[in-house]
Amino acid sequence: MSEKKKSDPREGSLRIIRRGLSLSPAIVEGWRRTVLLALLGTAGSSLVPIVVQRSVDSGLGDTQGGVDSGRIVLVVVLAAVLLGVSGVASWAAKVRIFTGTERGLTQLRVRAFRHVHDLSMLTQNTQRRGSLVSRVTSDIDQISLFLQSTGMILVLSAGQMLVATVVMAFLSWQLTLVVIGVFIPLALSLKIFAERMSIAYDRVRQTVADLLTTIAEPVVGASVVRSYAIERRTQQRIDDAIQTNYRSNVKAQTIVSVTFASAILVGGVANAAALGVGVWLGVVGDLSMGTVIAFIFLITLFVGPAQMATQVITEAQNAVASWRRVIELLETPADVVDPGPGVAALPTGDLGARFSAVRFAYPEGPTVLADLDVTIEPRQRVAVVGETGSGKTTFAKLLTRLMDPVEGTVSLGRDDQWADIAQVSFADLRRHVVMVPQEGFLFDSSLAENLRYGRRSATDAELVAAIGDLGLVDWFEALPRGLETRVGQRGESLSAGERQLVALVRSALADPAFLVLDEATSAVDPQTELRATRALEVLLDGRTSVTIAHRLSTAENADRVLVFDAGRLVEDGSHADLVDAGGVYQRLHASWVAQASLGGGVTPAGTLAP
Amino acid sequence: MTTSLDNLGGTDTTDLTRRGFRVLGIGIGRQKALFTLSIVFSVLFGATTVADAWVLGWATDHVIRPSFEDGDVATGALVTGVLLFISVSILRMIGVVGRRLVGGIVFYRLVAGDRRRVTRKYLRLPVSWHQAHPTGQLLSNANADVEAIWSVFMPLPMAIGVIAMLVVAVATMLAADLVLTLVGLVVFPLLFVLNVVYQRRQGPRMAQAQSLRGDVSSVAHESFDGALVVKSLGREDEETARFASASEELRDANIAVGRVRAVFEPVLEALPSIGVLLVVLLGIGRIESGATDPGDVVQIAYLFTIVAMPVRAIGWVLAELPRTVVGWDRVRGVLDDPTRFPYGTADLPGSGPVGLRTEGLGFAYEPGEPVLADLDLEITPGSVTAVVGSTGSGKSTLASLVTRLLDADEGQVLLDGRPAPDIDHDELAAAVALVPQATFLFDDTVRSNVTLDAEISDEAVWDVLRTVQADRFVEALPQGLDTQLGERGTSLSGGQRQRLSLARALVRDPRLLVLDDATSALDPAVEQRILRALAERSQGEGGPTVLVVAYRKATIALADQVVHLADGRIADRGTHAELRERSAAYRDLVDAYDQAREEVDHE
Ligand SMILES: Nc1ncnc2c1ncn2[C@@H]1O[C@H](COP(=O)(O)OP(=O)(O)O)[C@@H](O)[C@H]1O
Ligand SMILES: Nc1ncnc2c1ncn2[C@@H]1O[C@H](COP(=O)(O)OP(=O)(O)O)[C@@H](O)[C@H]1O
Ligand SMILES: [Mg+2]
Questions:
Q1: Distance CA B74, CA B53 (A)
Q2: DSSP E strands: which ranges in B248-355?
C-alpha cells in the first residue's frame, strides 16, 4: 500500500506531520509558549553539573587551600531557585501538552469516525472492519503516545543534549570534542539499529494480527468448531500463531536490549576518555579540576537519550505511520457525497424513482448493471425478481444512493418535478427513502433502543403499537422482557428471523415515502412474513415500495414486476402480463409454483417435480 | 515491603496490592529459573551502577586531585581509572542486556502460556456458554487481559535490582561519609514514597482511561459493523454524536492522567538534584572539618544523579498492580468457569444412517423461560423429517440440541439409542453434521473451509461442490480451491457462503444431517437443484437420516415426516398431507403463499 511512500520517508514524514497538525489545530495552539516552557524545564537538568564544577573549583576539591564556602552557598541557593523555576516551567509545559494533544486528537478521532460513515459501502467493503476500527482507536492512541511521551522525550532530550553541549563547550571545547567523538559512532549506528528494529516491530505487528484472527475462530465459530470436532486443528493453529508471535517478540526484544545497552558502554568509554584527556589537559593546560568532574556529570545527560534513541526513533516512525493512515483515510474521497441542504429538494408527498441510462460496475469489476432505463411511479408497489447475482441488490443500493452509478442518473420525484438524488441532501433523502437490508443488524442494547433507530422520538407505547400494527403481537408477547429485551451483540440473542422482524418494525416506524426491502424477510416463516409485509403495505398505503422478492408470492401481489437477468432489466410488467410471456419470469415462477404447490400429497415424498 | 505499602493505602488498595503481589508470586513460580536469571542480571546492573559512582569518587581522590595538585599526570592511577570506567560499564551493559532480554522472555512466556490456557478453555466450553458471553469480551480476555496481567513483569526485574542497588548505594555511602549518608537516607525514601503516592493517585485514573478506551473501541466496532443500517436509516449524525461523547470522556480521563503526571514528574526529576545540592552544602562543612574527602562528596553527588532514574521502576511496578489484578480476575473468570461439557466414550457402530429419538426434551436460555418443553420425537434411520414452525418457535434450538451443541435441561436426546452426552466427541462429529442458519467461514482457503484439514481428496471436494452448485463460482475464483476467503468470507455473496457451508457438511458423508434453514439465501431455483441432488445422494443406499428446518414446500415435501413446532412444543406431527388435512394452524403456516395466491385470483 505505502510502497511508493516508503521510498521517500523523510519528505513524506514532514508532510504527514504538518498535515496532521493542521487537522488538529488544538495541538499547536500557543506552541511557542509551550516550547519555551519546555526548554526552561529541561534546563534544570544542566544545573547540577554546573554546581558541581563551581563548588569543586571554589575549593571543595582542594583540601589544602581554603574553601570559599560563601561562594558555594550562593551557587547552591541560586541553583535551588532556578531548579524551582524550571520545575514549575516543566509542569506548565506538560499540562499544556497533555491538554492540547488530547483535545486535538479527539477532534481528529471524531472526524475520522465520521469520515468512515461518509465513505460509500463500496469503499468500506474494501477494508477489513478491524482496520477501520484501528484508524479511530489504536492509530490515534499511537499518535497520542508519541506526542505526549516519545515525542516529548525526543524534543526534551534534544534540548537537554543541546544545553549540555553548550555548557560543555563553554567549559572546555577540547573535552567537548572528545566526548562528541566517542558518541559519533553510536549516533551513526542508530540508523541501522532503528531500521532493524522497525523491521522487527513490523513483523511483531503482523503476527499480532494473525494471532487475533486465529484466536477469534473458537469464539466466533464456536458451533462449527464444536460440531465438526476440530478442536485439535483449531488449537494447533492457535498454538502456532502464539508461538510465531512469541518468537517475533523475543527477537524484537533482543534488538531493543542490545541497542539500549550499547549506550551504557559508550558512556563508560566517554567517562574514561574525559578522565584521561581531562587530567592531561589540566596538567599541560589550564583546565580546572571542577571541569573534569563536571564533564562526567554532563556525560550522563547524553547516555540517557542515547539509550532511548533507537526506541524513540522506532516509535516516532510508528506514530508517523499511524498518522499517515489516519490522514489517508481522511483523504479518501467520500465518493458518495452529501451535497448538503438546499441544492435540490424532494417534492413533498408521493415519490417515484427514475433510472436514466444507468450503468454500474464494482471497482475493477465487470459491469453488473447495464442500460437501465426505468421509471417507478409514485404509490407503485414494485417487486424485483431474478436469480442470485443478477443485480437486484445493486439496483436497490443505487436507488437508495448507497452507491452512485458509473454512468447515468437516478432521480426521485413525480410528474415533472424530478431531483437527481446526487443533489438531494442526505437528511432529506434518508427521511423519505428507507432500505431494509437482508442482514438484520441490531445494536447491542434493548429492543426499544433498536426500534428507535427508525424513529428517534417514538414513545414506548408507539413502539408497541407499531409491533401490533405489523401483526407481530404473538411474537412480541412471547418475549419475556418485552421492549427491554436485550438483543445481544449484533442482535445474536434473537433468532435470525426475529432480527429481521425488528428491522421491519424499525422501517415501519421510520414511515418513509419510499420503502426498499432487500430480501428483508428471508429467515421469517411464511405466515409471519406475509402477515408482516402485508401489514406494512397497509401502513405504507399510498407509499411507493420496491421489494426484492425472495419468494415469488411477493411478485404475484405487486403492481409491477421488474425481472433482472445477468445485469439487465429483461422484463417489466404485471404478474399477469409476464407469467405467460415465455420469458425469464415464467421460468422462475414455474419453478416457484412447482416447489410451492408440492403439498397435499400429490407428489410422493423424496421426489421433486422438475 | 508489602506491609509498608499497605500502610499507605486504604483497605481497598491494601487488598489490591496484596492480591497483586500474590499474582506476581504465581508468575514467578511459573518461570522460576528464567526469572531468577533476570534478577541476577538486574542485581549485577544495580551493583555496577553504584560501582560507577564509586569509580568516579576513587578517580577524584586518586587520579584527578593528585594530578592537579602535583601538576603531573598520575599515570598508573589514571590507567587504572580508565580501565575501571570501561570494565564497570561493560558489566553494567551485560546486566542491562540480560535483564531486559531475560525479563522480556519471562513476560512473553507468561503471556503465551495464558493465551494457550484461555483458548484451550474456549475450545472446551460449550456453545451455550459462548452464546451467553459477548464475543468482544472473550477476545479481549485472550488478548488484552492476558497482557494486562503480566506486563508488570517488564519492570519487575529492574525494580528488584533497584532495591539491591539502593542497599549497595547506602552501604557505599556509609563507607564514605556518615553525615552525607543521611541525605541519601532522606532523599531515597522520599523518592520512593513519592513514587508510591504518584502511582496510587495515577492507578485509578489510568484504569478509568483504559476502560473508556475500551468503550470508544466498541462503539466504533459496532457502528462500522452496522454501517449499512446506519447509512440506510440516515443515522450518521447520531452515531457520530455517540462516538464523540465516548471520545470526549476518554479525552477528559486522559487529561486527568496527564495533570497528575505533570505535577509528579518534575518533582521526581528535581528531587535527586535537590539531593545533590544538599550533599554539596553539607559537604563544605565536612571537608572543612577534614571529616571527609572531596572524592566522597563527588561520589555521593554522582550517585544521586544515576540512581534517580532506575528508582522509578519501583513506581512502574506499583502502577501496574491494579491492572494485573483486574486482568487476573477476568482471565480467572474464564479459566475457573465451572461449566462442563464432557463427552462420553460410547461409539456409534456401523456406517449406515443413525436413528434419532428425543424423550421429554426441554430447554431454556434463561431460567424459567423454556424455549422447548416436553418434546418427544422418533426419527427412524434413513428417513427425512422436516421441522416447521413460526419464527422464534425454537427450531434452531432443537437443531442445536440434537447435534449436541447444547445439552437438554430436561429429558434427553438419543442417537441409535445412546444418550448423546455418552457418545465420544470424534465419533459424534463423524456421524452428525449440522449446517447452521448463520454461516461461519474461516479466514483460510476454500479447500480448508470445506475439508477442515481432514484428509479428503480434491476429487471428493469438487464432487461435493458440484452437488451444492458451487463448482462454477469456485472455478472462477483466481486460485480455485486455494483462494483465500478473507475475513469471514466477506468476498463472497450470502448464497455462495451458504453453499460452502453445505459442502462442508456433505463432504463428510454424515449419518445424520441437520439443515437449519440452510438454503435461505438461495433462489428457489438454485435451492431446488441442490435439494434434488441431495435427494439423489440419499436415494443411494446408506444415505443419511435428515432433519431439516424449512419453510419451502419443496423441502417439506421431501420429508417422510413433518413436525410442527409451536411455542416450543410439538403441535402436531405426521406427513405433510396429514397435517394439512387436520391442522388449520399448519395450513396457515405452510400454505400462506397459496392462500395469498388464491386471494389474488379471487380479486
Ligand atoms: N462488493 C462487491 N464487489 C464486487 N462484486 C460484487 C460485489 N457485490 C456484488 N458483486 C457482484 O455483482 C453482481 C450482482 O450482485 P447483486 O446485485 O448482489 O445480485 P443479487 O442481489 O441479484 O443477488 C454479482 O455478480 C456479484 O458477484
Ligand atoms: N443465544 C440466545 N440467548 C437467549 N435467547 C435466545 C438465544 N437464541 C435464541 N433465543 C430465543 O429462543 C427462542 C427460540 O429461538 P430459535 O430456536 O432460534 O427460533 P427459530 O429457529 O425457530 O426461529 C427465541 O425466542 C429466541 O429469542
Ligand atoms: Mg432459526
A1: 20
A2: none
Nearest atom, ligand 2, residue B399 CA: 17
Q: Which residues of B touch A118 (CB under 8 A)?
A: 236
Q: Cell 486522559, residue?
A: B254
pLDDT at A604: 36
Q: How many C-alpha atoms does B395 have within 13 Å on its Cβ side?
A: 33
pLDDT digits (tens, 9 = 90+) for B159-194: 999 888 888 888 888 888 888 888 888 888 888 888
Interhelix angle B524-539/A584-596, nearest 10 degrees: 50
Task: Answer whether B192 touches A (CB < 8 Å).
Answer: no
- C-alpha B133/C-alpha B146 separation (Å) is 18
Which residues, in sequence order, are CB contacts of B178 under 8 Å at separation 6+?
Answer: none
**Is it true that domain A13-330 has CATH number 1.20.1560.10?**
yes
Tens digits of per-residue pLDDT, A81-96?
A: 999 999 999 899 999 9
Q: At residue A609, does pLDDT exceed 70?
A: no
Nearest chain A alpha carbon to B106: A250
**Among partner residues A258, A434, A557, which is closest to B233 by beta-carbon distance?**
A434
* Test the B interface: residue of A53, A64, A495, A584 with most B CBs within 10 Å: A495
The residues whose Cβ lies within 5 A of ligand 3, an ion, are A 495; B 396, 437
Test site for ligand 1: of A393, A399, A562, most ligand atoms within 8 A of the Cβ: A393
Which residue's C-alpha cell is 464444536?
A226
Segment B96-106 shows an average pLDDT of 94
Q: Once rounded to an integer, what is the mean pLDDT over residues A500-518? A: 89
Sheet containing B410-415: which strands, arranged edge to edge? B369-379, B356-366, B410-415, B418-419
- Residue A218 CA to ligand 2 center (angstroms) comes to 21
CATH T-level fold of A352-597 = Rossmann fold (3.40.50)
- Closest residue of B to A102, CA-based? B251
Where does residue B511 rank: exposed (0-12), middle (13-18), buried (19+ CB within 10 A)?
A: buried
pLDDT in the model for residue A600: 37
Query: Could you report the per-residue pLDDT of B400-448, keeping only the tens digit for each?
Result: 999 998 899 999 999 999 999 999 998 999 899 999 888 888 878 899 9
Other Cβ atoms closer than 10 A to A174? 13
Residue of B127, B134, B555 lying closest to A226 (CB–CB):
B127
**Could you tell me if the CB of A393 is within 6 A of ligand 1?**
yes
- Supply the pLDDT for residue A75: 86
Per DSSP, the three-state class of B527 is: helix
B86 contacts A246? CB cut-off 8 A? no
Task: Check if the beta carbon of residue A168 is closer than 8 Å to that of residue A176.
Answer: yes
3-state class (DSSP) for residue A91: helix
Nearest CA in chain B to A68: B284
Q: Are strands A544-548 and B356-366 parallel, antiparallel or unpaired?
A: unpaired
Cell numbers placing B551: 419453510
Flag whether residue B320 sits within 8 Å of chain A, measured between CB atoms.
Answer: no
Q: What is the DSSP letter of A486?
A: B
